[in-house]
Specification:
Keywords: Ligase, Magnesium. It contains 13 helices and 15 strands. It is an alpha+beta fold. A hairpin with a 6-residue loop joins strand 6 and strand 7. The chain starts with 10 loop residues before the first helix and ends with a helix. The N terminus is likely disordered.
Amino acid sequence: MMTTTTRYPDLLSEVRAFRAQYPEVRYVDLICLDIPGHFYGKRYPIDMLEKVAAGSPLKLPQNCVLLGTQGGLYPIGDYCFADGDPDAPRRLVPGTLKPVRWEKEPLGQMLITSDGTEAPIEFEPREVLARVLQRLERRGIRPVVAFELEFYLFDRKLDAGLPRFPRDPLCEDEDDQPNMHIERLSRFSSVLHEMVDAANEQGVAANVITAELGPGQFEINFGHCDDGLQAADWAALFCRSTRGVALKHGLRASFMSKPYLEAPGSGMHVHVSLYDQDGNNLLAAEEQRPLRHAVAGCLELLPHCMPIFAANHNAFRRYGAMVNAASRASWGFEDRDACIRIPESDGRNLRIEHRLAGADANPYLVLAAILTGMEHGLDAAREPIAPLNDDRTSGIDFPKDMLTAVAAMGSHPVVNQGLGSEFVMVYCENKRQEYLDFMNEVSAREYRWYL
């Protein structure tokens, strides 16, 4: 279940080894995930990257982290329009310098972050997760994590701004009769296999491919990882490479939560188990009492973390839909209708599968919220509500719109303490203003109904 994390203590050696292996690469994209889950950064000549690896300072504007989905900035506290837009230090993330196979010309990419610098940005998603993991490490708790990401393929060209089903590369038929048949994997094998290959080249342990229920919908799983930051890195890098490979094949790949109202949405499923310093699964102790406590903590905080799990207006459309998309906070053993599923496993691999987040959520923040909920549950030591296996009506209501959700998140003391009050303020205000900005448009439907 666990994979050992590879350490790269010498950044300069890593860059020089990369240059020797890929002499045709002239530029490297230095990238970092912002609050909405998009990469920002700069393209560096490879010789300048070597200087950064040797110790030259690396700085980017602090407020890049606060970019909205469309790239704009919102006034948030003293940030953005009252702080002079200062630079903030970043560092290279060891082990992430990899080749890019989906661009027209040879290119490399490497993750950067503010966490671990002399002035980490409190609201940078990777830094938020790093603080949660450090807190657990001080308690002798080590999470093991695996992400599963669903996504849709579309035709590369839109039809009057609307997505079109992808076409079978062999017979040109639309993939409009969705099912989980293995033949769908064969029809799209060229793009799906290259998606796995590209992810593997980025160091992502992508493996199993599944045809999902939606038209053009698939899922690719990752291996379990004993480094929470690396597990979230894998999810972020996978989204980038998957989109790039799809375009190379004349398709679009999207992690949008609910692209079709009549088809299943796309989720980000996160498997988490907790181990002590001796490698014992903490959730399996005392007849699985810690597992139940962790579930109770996750369920208690779930209604107050909805802006993280459902990161935009579209993501809320996914809940209470056709199949396997809960409308209340719930749990169950081997039950895919539950927000928190307990897969069948032995004591060594006992874990929760958190199924609520949309595929377009920020993986660093999703994992940080899940771990904070589990930690809270272990501390509170309360039993959860009845599982769905015993009561199909069991559940806790959670917000179904962004404005209600940010109000519930911003005022919750455990969420503020667990994720950081400065982050919670910034994140909630970012989501609140983005939602109002999104709604500030008169749609064609409004004219049809009310003109």
